[in-house]
Specification:
The structure is a single chain. It is built from ten helices and six strands. It is of the alpha+beta class and 302 residues long. It folds into two domains: 2-58 and 166-300, no CATH class; 64-133, no CATH class.
């Protein structure tokens, strides 16, 4: 029984390869379109991961600074600091006094004589400030709204608006890319499935006499069906392999870093995700190839 099963499997694989090779023109087109479909699906998957890294990194680095009026006493600012720590989910709030702000300015611009001379002619012009960092950009918005609503008289400025625009712009751009890529992926998937479907259909039509003979000599429907399913699987696997080669070559062309107010090492990210990418490519190719084969075999093999 086991030997018979092994022999039947070998014959099915051989016949499936024969069908794939015989319809080489259609098989090539099906492989090519399916390869593009798989590549786009995988790129969308990778893009979503990169977007999450970028947004997470921006949210972590996009701290906000609250500058206070120079007339506000330090005690009130420290009380507000404690209030923010108790009522909002923040990672850290750093208080920078007026004297510390002046020291930082001198350390940064001390070599510019004109600035230093101007600074000597006035009292300390720098405001005290709170530097707030959190994991979620929405916390910044809540803090900014709270301060403007309940403590507006203390505040000189809140530098959140520019960072909010950057994050919102990234969300909008990436969402448009996702939608456009998804539409393209769906269209190409329909085309690829249609091509695999027609390739198997033509193979069944071209082998109709051989199928009759196989049935006359006692070949089971399972054996006959399996050969065409193997053909669909071959189309999917070849498409997945060519997609893997194309994306691997593309991976070597990726620059080490790409700056978007931060650094994301795309090359390392690609290498880290490579095992998942390989599995995803072959899973998509195999499922689309075999799925198309099952549909056409069930419909036309009778």
């Amino acid at each position: 029984m086991k030997k018979r099963f092994i022999n039947s499997t070998r014959r099915a694989l051989r016949l499936g390869w024969k069908n794939f090779y015989r319809e080489s023109g259609l098989s090539f087109v099906a492989v090519f379109v399916l390869m593009i479909t798989i590549s786009i699906d995988v790129l969308l998957f990778l893009l979503s991961g990169v977007v999450e890294i970028i947004i997470s990194d921006i949210e972590q680095k996009a701290d906000i600074t609250i500058d206070f009026q120079t007339t506000i006493p330090e005690e009130r600012i420290l009380e507000l600091k404690e209030d923010l720590e108790d009522n909002f989910e923040v990672n850290n709030i750093e208080y920078i006094s007026r004297d510390e702000a002046m020291t930082i300015f001198i350390q940064r611009f001390g070599d510019r004589r004109s600035l230093m001379e101007s600074l000597e002619e006035v009292d300390n012009p720098f405001p005290a400030s709170l530097n707030i960092s959190a994991d979620d950009s929405f916390v910044y918005r809540e803090i900014a709204d709270y301060l403007e609503r309940d403590h507006g008289g203390m505040i000189y400025s809140i530098d959140f608006a520019n960072r909010e625009e950057i994050i919102a712009g990234i969300f909008t751009a990436t969402e448009n890319i996702r939608r456009g890529g998804l539409i393209v992926a769906i269209i190409l998937s329909i085309v690829a499935i249609s091509l695999v479907y027609n390739t198997i259909k033509l193979a069944i039509y071209g082998l109709r006499e051989e199928i009759k003979v196989m049935r006359l000599v006692g070949s089971s429907n399972l054996f006959i069906r399996s050969s065409f399913i193997v053909q669909g699987a071959l189309v999917g696997c070849f498409a997945a392999f060519t997609s893997l080669v194309a994306l691997s070559l593309l991976g070597f062309l990726i620059p080490q870093t790409y700056n978007i107010t931060l650094e994301v090492n795309l090359y390392e990210y690609f290498l880290e995700m490579l095992p998942i990418v390989v599995a995803l490519q072959f899973a998509i190719g195999f499922l689309m190839g075999v799925g198309s084969s099952l549909v056409v075999v069930g419909r036309y093999l009778k």
